[in-house]
């Protein structure tokens, strides 16, 4: 068994033994404070990703910037040793992240229009190709503009799937489909197709020799030995695509549907209310978040597969690729699988939950709604704190608990918020539905 460190801090010159403080800080910092500081830094980092994408489209908010400065400052050496401050700051980060996700949603909608449910092909057309991965709709838009009339087909991968539903992006006929699933299939997928590749944000993987020379990065991404493009000047990427052979036409295994915006879902609200009152919809689930290449994450497919037919599943982020090929059907015209979009569209899920709570005249925690989340990186941490800041209880999280959570922190999360780790899919379903 590896030694479990109480904490790990090496941010100042006093680090114990010139290496790190691992039991208690030389400055007096205790392990729970060190871990809460780590948690805060991760949540803040997650929030900055959304802020970055909003700024890409010209949207900023000085109140969020001011909060970031102060919150980061609390984590400096000899500034704040009070654990309760760091719980408050985590919750405040959650609130600020809601504000940030709203800003980004506004930027997306005002720039590209509000998404509409859209079917997306998962096969290839005959012709040259560029595959874009990551989250940046701005980078994808610039790429679509610059590849117009070149004969190059542009495919999305992973978190860019929801781009197909935005009117300002779907208007480009050479936005040809989505290839692959969540981020970690990149090495096989990118080696398989002779396409040029653009990484616009996380999650990108260090490429293999099979495709390194046809991969490009932009924005915050970077890879050793891979050409980086600034300012959305995609000429080198387009030139590379023009040198490459044609992709062969290949039918996809499935047609995916994405683009259930807030307006679309709320236009169904009265019908949903009626179906709930008639007992035809028993429960809503939000199953989504980041995906990760671990056996435990198979839980999410099993969970959705085993849900009774009188339940609806809202989903978002790349975790949906675990189950978005399942033919879940519909309940009197309401699709049982509703893809709300990227991870930042957690704001859409929140606003829908708030609208349902008004519609039914109960608090969010009294709704027949359960959240079953998967997390991988720091944006998911920011979103988790957003949900906690709204007082949402009994969230199930997996595939594992965050490693920086120690017993003290877990106790607070369990006692105050009922946060719990996923167990077996069937066991969780039975517990939620009380069957
Ligand atoms: S800030 Fe405190 S805990 Fe961190 S390295 Fe310096 S002395 Fe150690
Ligand atoms: S949702 Fe999370 S895991 Fe998936 S691509 Fe985005 S950052 Fe990566």
Protein model, in words:
Helix content is 39%, strand content 14%. The model has no long low-confidence stretch (mean pLDDT 98). The protein is built from 14 helices and 16 strands. Strands 4-3-2-5-6-7 form a six-stranded parallel β-sheet, covered by helices on one side. The chain is globular. The chain has 435 residues and is an alpha/beta fold. One iron/sulfur cluster binds next to loops.
Compact description:
With 435 residues, the protein is α/β, with parallel strands linked by helices. Helices cover 39% and strands 14% of the residues. The strands form four sheets. The chain has a six-stranded parallel beta sheet, with helices on one face. Strands 13-10-9-14-15-16 form a six-stranded parallel beta sheet, with no helix packed on it.
Task: Detail the topology: elements first, then pairings.
Elements: H1 31-56, H2 62-73, H3 83-112, E1 118-120, E2 129-133, H4 137-147, E3 153-157, H5 167-170, E4 175-178, H6 186-192, E5 196-199, E6 215-218, E7 227-229, H7 235-243, E8 256-258, H8 262-267, H9 269-277, E9 283-289, H10 298-306, E10 311-315, E11 330-331, E12 334-335, E13 337-339, H11 346-360, E14 369-374, H12 378-389, E15 396-398, H13 407-417, E16 420-421, H14 425-433
Parallel strand pairs: 2-3, 2-5, 3-4, 5-6, 6-7, 9-10, 9-14, 10-13, 14-15, 15-16
Antiparallel strand pairs: 1-8, 11-12
Helix pairs in contact: 1-3, 1-12, 2-3, 3-12, 10-14
Bound molecules: iron/sulfur cluster (2 copies).
Residues 9-12, 14-15, 21, 25-27, 29, 77 line the site of one iron/sulfur cluster.
